[in-house]
Amino acid sequence: MSEKPRPTKLKFKGEKTKKKRKREDGEEGGSKKHRRKEDDEESSDTWVILEQPNEIRGPTYILHPSDPPICITYDNTRGRIVLHSVDKDKTEDGTQPSVLERTPTEVSQVWVTTRVAGATTINLRTGVGEGKFLSCDKHGIVSADREARGPQEEWTPVVLPDGMVAFQNVYEQYLSVDEVAGGSLSLRSDSEEVGFRERFWVKIQNKYKKEAHEEEKKRKEGLSTDSKIDEASTNKIYQAWGAGRSIVSVDDKKALKKAKKDGRLAEALLDRRAKLKSDRFC
């Protein structure tokens, strides 16, 4: 008897398993709606290409279209970044998918993207082990050995016209794939321009992309609400037409004239006292 094949879908720590509900043959009322809801929930875990920088969040899969294609992984045993060839990862039928069709097959291939609310920069943390942040020093050396984040752990994602992404560090230089001695590949971040080596495909889960769109929608709605002003009530309090000319009532004009008159009298009195003191000491 053949063994039941094990599921190959990658799951993350803390991710809830969705239970499938069996339906009876006679259950038709609301079944289409329920099925559509299940499809939406299933598609929320689908890996998609991002379109805007604010969409980069949550589990993140970073690919480089080299030959063969590679992805940025973290070796928790050796505590170092490894550029893993994804040609070794095949589908269930043994075929090689295209770069855009690929999804992570190991947790070590996934980075967790976080950001401070309202910031344009992001932090990339390893998805395995104790969670180390991707960082770069002023010499362009890239590592993932820090548990705390600072300026060197901040990256600015730049979405290019073709949908690919370049990562700029705090020194305004770009993350790139570099060939070192022996033909092996490593990451550096000292490129001043974006070329082939500095371009990456970045995939996120669809639910986080939807979340980013919802936040952007609420933010725009909030701005439009805040910009509404009750002009009628405001003009009753403050009116300044022409070259800053204030429109005031008759009583206000009288009060202003009195204040000016009192001010002139006070100034004259002070001048008189000062003159008397000076005459006394002469």
Question: What is this entry, summarized?
Answer:
The protein is of the alpha+beta class and 282 residues long. It has 4 helices and 15 strands. The protein has 2 domains: 35-219, Trefoil (Acidic Fibroblast Growth Factor, subunit A); 239-280.
Oligomer: single chain
Specify the overall morphology: elongated
Number of H- or I-type helical stretches: 4
Q: What is the averaged pLDDT score?
A: 75
Distance between the termini: 125 Å
Order of helices and strands: HEEEEEEEEEEEEEHHEEH
The counted number of beta strands is 15
Beta-strand proportion: 15-25%
- Which spans have pLDDT < 50 for at least 5 consecutive residues? 4-8, 23-29, 224-248
Helicity, as a percent range:
25-40%
Taking Cα atoms only, what radius of gyration do you get, to the nearest Å? 33 Å
Please state the second-level CATH architecture of the largest domain: Trefoil
Region (Disordered): 1-46
Subcellular location: Nucleus, Nucleolus
Biased composition (Basic residues): 7-22
Keywords: Nucleus
